[in-house]
Amino acid sequence: MPTRPDQAGLPLGLPIEVEEFLSWMLAERGRSRNTLEAYRRDLTGYTSWLAEHSGGERGIMTVDGAGIDAFIGARRAVAAPSSVARQLAAIRMLHRFLTDEGMRADDPTAQLEGVRVPAGLPHPLDEDEVVRLLDAVVGDDPVARRDRAVLELLYATGARISEVCGLSLGDVDLEHRAARLFGKGAKERLVPFGRTASDALAGWLGEDGRPRLVPDRWARRGDSTAMFLNQRGGRLTRQLAWSMVKEHGRRAGIPADRLSPHVLRHSCATHLLNHGADLRVVQELLGHASVSTTQVYTKVSQDRLVEVYRRAHPRAVAR
Asked: How far apart are CA 159 and CA 182, in angstroms?
């Protein structure tokens, strides 16, 4: 069976059928490049294991439910349940595609049980910790202006870091304080932001901010319209933005294991609900397809309520 050289340096390339599946996910389902890269990594591990244990290169065409169960068992021994569940989801979608396209007569994943993932709650920052983080950006140079604008926008909108890095100049309306974000599946939503974020964005877009990082010549198409630039004049990447958040968190005295761009998203949602925001409004703001995804923040807020009550009420704890 034809395969491609594997870009991750693994001994086995992906079978053509898997490449067709990934192309279908991009063209027909509108999955993002980041999502496709995650599928590629998961399916590379799967097909590599099958090559060694279940029929060589034709493993995906001959493997049965017991074979996939064996693979999942091997993965459970070395990976977190959430990682195994994600990989199994990619495998299910692949085999459903092979069946629907007539490449296989059966779907070996049809009777498989799912992987149980322990329920976890997001751990948002306290409001005073967010203030410390935002105040940790000091200076008035272009990089400081950019970092301040990114952090303020992340907390103000609850946006994913990929959504903020993907912003173009035309996606932000300072006059009406709104940003157009493109979420998972290229779904578009309009989100408001407040005066503090607006002021930070205006400072970044002013003559002492973004214009100072504009290069003599743009290296890549699309960089010229990017809202946020790196110091070389290219579009700000998720990796650099992630490091920037961590660095300012360190300066603010927030432990590295408690802070990431996604924690600011959690914090935005939790603080909105703490202050009385409607659950449906928060769902729309975050771009969740289902309100059940947003409801996890209600549990966070309830836990906070119980914690404050037990600490504050004079008869909450038996003496």
From this structure: 10
Q: Where are the domains of the chain?
A: 16-100, 127-312
Catalytic residue among 95, 104, 160, 271: 160
Spatial separation of the C-alpha atoms in residues 42 and 94, rounded to whole Å:
11
CATH assignment of 16-100, given 3.90.105, 1.20.1250, 1.10.150, 3.30.360? 1.10.150
User: Is 265 known to be catalytic?
Assistant: yes
Catalytic residue from among 184, 189, 212, 238? 184
**Tens digits of per-residue pLDDT, 263-292?**
998 899 888 888 888 878 888 888 776 666
Q: State how far the Cα of 273 lies from the Cα of 181, in Å rounded to an integer.
A: 21
262 is known as an active-site residue = yes
pLDDT tens-place string over residues 27-65: 888 888 888 899 999 999 999 999 888 655 458 998 999
Token pair of 192 as six digits: 């408001």
Instruction: Please give the single-letter amino acid code of residue 221.
Output: R
Active site residue 176: no
Tell me the pLDDT of the chain averaged across its residues: 85
* Fold topology of 127-312: hpI Integrase; Chain A (1.10.443)
Q: Please give the order of strands across the beta sheet that includes 172-173.
A: 172-173, 178-182, 188-192
pLDDT tier, 257 (very low <50, low <70, confident <90, very high otherwise) = confident
